[in-house]
Amino acid sequence: MTSELHYSPATNAPPRPGVFIVFEGGDGSGKSTQARILETRIREEIKCEVLLTREPGGTEIGERIRSLVLEQGQGQIDARTEALLYAASRSAHTHQVIAPALERGAIVVCDRYIDSSAAYQGAGRGLGERPVTELSRWATENLLPDLTIFLSLGVSDARRRVTSRGAADRLEAEPDSFHARVRDSFHALAQSTDSARVTVNGGGEIDDVADRVWNAVAPVLTAGEPR
Predict the structure, then answer these.
(1) How distant, in Å, are the alpha carbons of 69, 154, 212 from that of 203?
(2) N or C: which end of the chain has fewer CB within 10 A?
(3) Angle at 139 between CA 136 and CA 144, to 5 degrees
(4) Which helix (H) or strand (E) holds 31?
(5) How far apart are CA 99 and CA 132, in angstroms?
(6) Rounded CA gap, 81 and 86, in Å?
């Protein structure tokens, strides 16, 4: 699979000294692993401040919300409440952590962001991708990534990875029909031109995937030098 990159900065996006990179993809695609590898490689090769963070989470309140929306046994959560909880976590995350780091000139690497809500709550839960995206854009004051990396992986490989991790969380435990809607949504979002996006083949050896990720990220990191 070749990487397809769309460069089209978000309209009215204010300039900032830092760089914001987001990993997106379905469960088992390897986002968390590749985000950690990228953080290490940036530290070693670019030698600057790097913040590795995740969603939902990243703040004290965000981690509490994470337990509510992902852990089993937390009680029933309807689709709209779930979407609002994710948006609340994202609002705290962007205002308390991400935006200040970008203003310092740091490189922020985030495991999931707005597109995950569009895919999981918008498409998966049937709330609609557009209203869910608009909710998150309002919550974040339209803070969008400089680059979104979509990790693409076959259904059987992704399912095998999720199964190997043990007990599934609330979203992982949803039926195949739910995850099919999520996959289709991610595929469509990856083609969007409202910000820079790249699709990277997440299959094969971890180091090979990491090299593909680096080839996509490196031009973005060097485009603004010196920062």
Answers:
(1) 28, 8, 11
(2) N
(3) 60
(4) helix 31-45
(5) 21
(6) 9
pTM above 0.90? no
Average pLDDT, the chain: 88
The backbone torsions φ and ψ at residue 93, rounded to the nearest 5 degrees and listed phi first, read -65, -45
State both tokens at 78.
């309807």
**Amino acid identity for residue 44 in this structure:** E
> Which amino acid, 54?
R
Cα separation, 174 vs 84, whole angstroms: 19
Pairing, β 5-6 against β 19-24:
unpaired
Q: How many residues does the chain have?
A: 227
Name the least confident of 98-107, 116-125, 127-136, 178-187: 178-187
Q: DSSP code of 144?
A: -
Q: Which one is the CATH code of 5-223: 3.40.50.300, 1.20.1290.10, 3.30.70.270, 3.30.420.40?
A: 3.40.50.300
Residue 84's H or E segment, with its range, is helix 79-93
- DSSP code for 104: T
Tokens 């509490």, residue located: 64
